[in-house]
Amino acid sequence: MTAHLDSGPAHPPRIGVDHPVAQPVHAASYDQLDDHELLRLHVAGNPDTFGFLVKRHRDRMWAVAIRTLGEPEEAADALQEAFISAFRRADSFRGDAKVTTWLHRIVVNACLDRIRRRQVRQADPLPEDEDRAAELAGPAEDDPAEVRERRIDVLNALKQINPDQRSALVLVDMEGYSIEEAAAILGCAPGTVKSRCARGRARLLPLLRHWQTTRGGSDLPEKTAAETVGTE
Amino acid sequence: MTDSGLPTSEHLEHLDTDTIADLIENLLPAAEAHSAREHVKACPDCQLTYDALLELSEDLAEEGRSDIPMPADVAEHLDAVISSEAVMRASTVGVHSLVQIREEPHRHVPKLLGAAAAVVLVAAVGVGVVVATKDRAGENAANTNPTAILPTGTPSLSLSQIAPEAQRWLEKGDGAPLLNGSATEIACAKVFASGRPNPQLRLVQPAKVDGKRATVIGLQGGSPRDIQLFVVTGCNDGSGAAAPYYDTTVTLRNR
Question: Any stretches that span the bilayer, and where are they (chain A) (predicted)?
Answer without folding.
Answer: none
